[in-house]
């Protein structure tokens, strides 16, 4: 996860290495000692480093801007593997720096639409943009608030969103009278 804080400066958004390297750094130059400096494990860069101090400090500033990770939001299905390994790897890498460990996790259930698991293959997949276009942003917010939270699966009900349009319109009319 720490790498994602600097990847855009090294890869320019291209994952296979074929794109423009914004800082002009080749993968071979990214040694363990360089990563130790960038990720706050060493106070000085390696003496034999071919990367400019300016580029190294830019990478280090970018990492320090995003770390520690204050909140990681994820689905409940990732608790036994991804989130657990996140904790293990951060504790192993920054053994003496618990201030760089993840500060909090929030997990949620899956999203259902009208009591069915949301899925493209079922044809009931709904993005926020689509919901806002169909029901309005305010009605979508109310339906989402009603859908549930925590580890339970959230159930977005189209009827609730539709009913919210009427409720909001009625309230708006009452408030303006």
Write up what this structure looks like:
This protein is mostly helical and 177 residues long. The chain has three domains: 3-66, no CATH class; 72-107, no CATH class; 109-176, no CATH class. Helices cover 45% and strands 9% of the residues. It has helices at residues 7-11, 32-38, 53-66, 79-93, 128-135, 137-147, 158-176; strands at 72-75, 105-108, 111-113, 116-117, 154-156. Strands 4-3-5 form a three-stranded mixed sheet. Strand 1, helix 4 and strand 2 form a beta-alpha-beta unit. Helix 6 (137-147) crosses helix 7. It starts with 6 loop residues before the first helix and ends with a helix. The mean pLDDT is 93.
- Write the element-wise H/E pattern from the N-terminal end onward: HHHEHEEEHHEH
The gross shape turns out to be elongated
Order of strands across the main sheet: 4-3-5
Head-to-tail CA distance between termini: 53 Å
Largest sheet, strands/sense/barrel: 3 strands, mixed
| Count of DSSP-assigned helices | 7
Q: In terms of structural class, how would the helical and strand content be classed?
A: mainly alpha
Beta-strand portion reads 5-15%
Proportion of residues in helical segments = 40-55%
Number of distinct beta strands: 5
Instruction: Estimate nothing, just give the exact number of structural domains.
Output: 3
Low-confidence segments, given as residue ranges, are: none
Task: Give the averaged pLDDT, no decimals.
Answer: 93
Rg, Å, rounded = 23 Å
Family: Belongs to the class-I aminoacyl-tRNA synthetase family.
GO biological process, one term: leucyl-tRNA aminoacylation
Pfam families: tRNA-synt_1g
InterPro entries: Leu-tRNA-synth_Ia_arc/euk, Methionyl/Leucyl_tRNA_Synth, Rossmann-like_a/b/a_fold
């Amino acid at each position: 996860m720490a790498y994602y804080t600097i990847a855009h400066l090294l890869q320019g958004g291209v994952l296979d290495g074929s794109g423009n390297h914004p800082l002009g750094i080749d993968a071979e130059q990214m040694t363990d000692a360089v990563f130790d400096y960038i990720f706050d494990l060493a106070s000085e860069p390696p003496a034999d480093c071919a990367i400019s101090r300016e580029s190294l400090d830019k990478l280090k500033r970018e990492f320090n801007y995003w770390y520690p990770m204050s909140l990681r939001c994820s689905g409940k299905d990732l608790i036994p593997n991804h989130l657990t390994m996140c904790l293990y790897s951060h504790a192993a890498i920054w053994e003496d720096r618990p201030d760089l460990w993840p500060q909090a996790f929030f997990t949620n259930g899956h999203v259902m639409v009208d009591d069915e698991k949301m899925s493209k293959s079922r044809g009931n997949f709904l993005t926020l943009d689509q919901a806002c276009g169909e029901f309005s942003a305010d009605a979508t917010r109310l339906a989402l608030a009603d859908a549930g939270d925590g580890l339970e699966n959230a159930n977005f009900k189209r009827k609730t969103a539709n009913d919210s349009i009427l409720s909001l319109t009625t309230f708006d009319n009452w408030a303006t009278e």
